[in-house]
């Protein structure tokens, strides 16, 4: 089978209006990445419970009506709307009863009603349910009195197929399955669900100053924290993880790590070593092993980033027909906050798209800024904010202390990103700003 070759990075760049690798607006970088990333191809069937958080690979068409019959929405008495007296009480004779999972069989003569429970099938010919709390039952329990005006024809009856009609698409391919979806699939009697296979993501940290937990910390060294934030963010996305540790700044070790990662994973994420003037070997090795671009993005934090494809075996990435075109490379900056910001700004959506998920914009809050915020036009800023509810019920936000891209505490203290758009200048106190809440994200 000859798959069409994926476009080269140069071809993709030519499709992105206003592409400038040295001052790339966030929106353009996102567009570029959306054009670059392929989607997984393999589908697997999983048990209904195992499908939570997975991406649906096929539309699910309802083979049945849900509910399958008209049924009662209340405990009460089923009747014919036609029998209701206008402007006066209605007296009806109880012909029998029907409970959930059962069905009152037989004819209900005019002037009669049936005691019915929530979920029970509506007896033939009856179209209305009066809730029991409205009904007066006298000494003679075979008779009920329904006060005028408490019910009109069609009330408290659920129609067959009103949740899902046979032939309707219950769920569309590309949906990340949530608890309600599992319930829907169960209501259709579906025991197994077709989902895209999980994405495999390899990641490692680069830098000679990095030490792993458990090692001594000589002067000038730092513990590798990026691998833990990355692990956490990836874990939340539900991808399969390949943690490759810290790779030292050595061309052979780096080339080995990139090759192994690209062979075993769909995407490779690194942190560190991509900034301008970086003395180490990371950028050179990336460029040698793949089709890779080095960007300076008009954003803060997170300016430098490498993006491209890395070949799993020898040969040019993406240039030999029929071969694995290589893993997608996300070379993130090294600073701990920049790693998280670039992950959420670019990598998250890209990995979801690779996993087969349909893009869903994340809901933002509009919050009043409690204090002025400094902001330069011409770049997108992701300031770390703390959102609270004002006494009048409105949402308000303030910035965590120092916004340095190495201050991970700012991410830990914040509960959302204050996203200040490309054109935005300084923000005055009281001005409304967009906040991307971490809930549902982190
Ligand atoms: P780089 O982009 O490699 O120049 O790194 C920028 C800054 O981030 C430096 O101060 C690094 O020490 C720091 N850094 C890089 N990688 C990590 C990591 N995995 N964990 C913590 N800090 C890091
Ligand atoms: Mg470095």
Descriptive terms for the model:
26 strands; 19% helix; six-stranded mixed sheet; binds adenosine monophosphate; alpha/beta; Molybdopterin biosynthesis moeA protein, domain 3; 29% strand; 4 domains; binds magnesium ion; five-stranded mixed β-barrel; Molybdenum Cofactor Biosythetic Enzyme, Chain A; 442 residues
Plain-language structure description:
- With 442 residues, the protein is an alpha/beta fold.
- The protein is 19% helix and 29% strand.
- It is built from eight helices and 26 strands.
- The chain has a six-stranded mixed beta sheet, with no helix packed on it.
- A hairpin with a 5-residue loop joins strand 9 (136-137) and strand 10.
- The radius of gyration is 30 Å and the shape is elongated.
- Residues 314-323 have low confidence and may be disordered.
- Magnesium ion (MG) binds next to loops.
- Adenosine monophosphate is lined by residues 205, 207, 209-210, 222, 224-226, 271-273, 275, 278, 333-336, 406.
């Amino acid at each position: 089978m000859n798959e069409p070759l994926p476009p080269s990075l140069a071809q993709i760049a030519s499709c992105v209006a206003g592409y400038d690798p040295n001052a790339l607006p966030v929106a353009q970088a996102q567009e570029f990445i959306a054009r670059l990333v392929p989607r997984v191809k393999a589908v697997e069937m999983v048990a209904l419970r195992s499908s939570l958080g997975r991406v649906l690979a096929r539309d699910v068409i309802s083979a049945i009506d849900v509910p399958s019959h008209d049924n009662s929405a209340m405990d009460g008495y089923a009747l014919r709307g036609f029998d209701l007296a206008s402007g006066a009480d209605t007296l009806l004779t109880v012909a029998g009863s029907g409970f959930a999972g059962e069905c009152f069989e037989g004819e209900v003569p005019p002037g009669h009603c049936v005691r019915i429970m929530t979920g029970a099938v509506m007896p033939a010919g009856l179209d209305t349910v009066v809730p029991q709390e409205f009904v007066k039952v006298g000494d003679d329990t075979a008779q009920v009195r329904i006060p005028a005006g408490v019910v009109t024809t069609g009330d408290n009856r659920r129609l067959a197929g009103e949740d899902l009609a046979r032939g309707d698409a219950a769920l569309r391919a590309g949906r990340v399955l949530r608890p309600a979806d599992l319930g829907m699939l169960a209501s259709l009697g579906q025991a197994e669900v077709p989902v895209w296979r999980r994405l495999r993501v390899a990641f490692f940290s680069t830098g000679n100053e990095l030490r792993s937990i458990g090692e001594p910390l000589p002067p000038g060294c730092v513990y590798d924290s990026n691998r833990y934030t990355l692990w956490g963010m990836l874990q939340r996305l539900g991808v399969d993880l390949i943690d490759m540790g810290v790779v030292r700044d050595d061309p052979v070790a780096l080339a080995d790590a990139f090759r192994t990662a690209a062979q075993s994973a769909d995407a490779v994420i690194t942190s560190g070593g991509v900034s301008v003037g970086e003395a180490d070997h990371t950028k050179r090795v990336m460029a040698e092993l793949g089709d890779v671009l080095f960007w300076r993005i008009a954003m803060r934090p997170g300016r430098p980033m490498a993006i491209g494809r890395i070949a799993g075996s020898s040969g040019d990435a993406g240039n030999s027909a029929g071969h694995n075109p290589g893993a997608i490379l996300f070379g993130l900056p090294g600073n701990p906050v920049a790693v998280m910001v670039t992950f959420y700004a670019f990598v998250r959506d890209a990995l979801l798209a690779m996993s087969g998920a349909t893009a869903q914009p994340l809901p933002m809050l509009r919050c009043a800024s409690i204090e002025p915020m400094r902001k330069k036009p011409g770049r997108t800023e992701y300031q770390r904010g703390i959102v609270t509810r004002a006494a009048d019920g409105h949402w308000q936000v303030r910035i965590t202390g120092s916004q340095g891209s190495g201050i991970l505490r700012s991410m830990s203290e914040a509960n959302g990103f204050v996203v200040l758009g490309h054109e935005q200048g300084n923000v005055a106190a009281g001005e409304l700003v967009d906040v991307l809440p971490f809930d549902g994200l982190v």
